[in-house]
Amino acid sequence: MTSSHPSPTTPPNGDAPRRPSDGATYAAAGVDIEAGDRAVELMKQWVKKADRPEVVGGLGGFAGLFDVSAFKNYERPLLASATDGVGTKVAIAAAMDKHDTIGHDLVGMVVDDIVVCGAEPLFMTDYICVGKVVPERVASIVKGIAEGCALAGCALVGGETAEHPGLLGPDEYDVAGAGTGVVEADALLGSERVRAGDVVIAMAASGLHSNGYSLVRHVLLNQAGWKLDRKVEEFGRTLGEELLEPTRIYSLDCLALTRATEVHAFSHVTGGGLAANLARVIPDGLHARLDRGTWTPLPVFRTVAEVGKVATLELEKTLNMGVGMVAVVPPHSVDVVLSILEDRGVEAWLLGDVVERTDEHAEGAALYNAYEGFTAG
């Protein structure tokens, strides 16, 4: 979790390095090395909370190390890797000067892409790009990442903080992360396992999660002119607090299901919405029939639709509409899945089923087919 900085430069003629007064300096260009070093010191306490026994060494090295000797117990271990960011949700965090949850969002976006294939997330690295290093702010971002990793059961083994003055404003920043997991080859989940007769189970989202914020900001902040400190009765809190609700992390919940019963596929509902993401795990020749009447989306989705006069189809292909993760399971697993999720505090319900395609539409029209699968409640 270090910032990269160049070493002092020695002129070609072998003279002593120039003094700051002799010419331009990195600090004069806007990069504060000392602030970066202080940020690293502040974040150390949080990184310790995102540990696993397999982590080797600590902060300060050029690479994070993770002991994979346990892989020898696998017949054929497959590594699963994912990378993501949190989009323009960072603009809300910056405007509210609240930075300790955006890292939680980042972890959720990465690890829940990994777990959909049945893989256990092992470790993450992060990249934080800022206009100006404010040590306390950087440490707050890392705090959220570390807490998210702890919730996901993975380690935070390293990262990078880069200061880009002139490219970003002093209070602007962006975050990205990458994660790695492992799954036994014969336990790999996906469309190859899905069969007609399977049941689709929805897991509730905590809110908008981390997708569609360009639309949400355009509608509520730009068009309607709402302020982030506006108290919204339907939300029971301010607009800003609603928009910063952390992304739910499902990885340990999904792994609990795979260890207790048979699961054929998961679908992480992110950009593209429920239909497009579910279509990614429905094989050709099959069709997922989903019932809109089985749940009521949270008020924030209705607010965006009404204030922006956003068409239903546009809303559903942009936002998660209250469903953050989907499990596709055989009928005999349904009761076990619902019971486990209830015990773990995850609201879940029967969303639909998988059937043979009988219409004349071309195979492979997955996005259209998935929307066609919605039926009125």
From TrEMBL:
One GO MF term: phosphoribosylformylglycinamidine cyclo-ligase activity
Reaction it catalyzes: 2-formamido-N(1)-(5-O-phospho-beta-D-ribosyl)acetamidine + ATP = 5-amino-1-(5-phospho-beta-D-ribosyl)imidazole + ADP + phosphate + H(+)
Keywords: ATP-binding, Cytoplasm, Ligase, Nucleotide-binding, Purine biosynthesis
Every PurM-like N-terminal domain range: 79-183
Annotated PurM-like C-terminal domain residues: 195-360
Sequence segments annotated as region (Disordered): 1-24
Pathway assigned in UniProt: Purine metabolism; IMP biosynthesis via de novo pathway; 5-amino-1-(5-phospho-D-ribosyl)imidazole from N(2)-formyl-N(1)-(5-phospho-D-ribosyl)glycinamide: step 2/2
This enzyme's EC code(s): 6.3.3.1
Stored InterPro entries: PurM-like_C_dom, PurM-like_C_sf, PurM-like_N, PurM-like_N_sf, PurM_cligase
Keyword Nucleotide-binding set for record: yes
Cited CDD domains: PurM
Gene3D superfamilies linked: PurM-like C-terminal domain, PurM-like, N-terminal domain
Main location: cytoplasm
Tagged with keyword Ribonucleoprotein: no
Subcellular location as annotated: Cytoplasm
Protein family (similarity comment): Belongs to the AIR synthase family.
Name of the molecule in the record: Phosphoribosylformylglycinamidine cyclo-ligase
Organism encoding this protein: Kitasatospora cathayae
Gene: purM
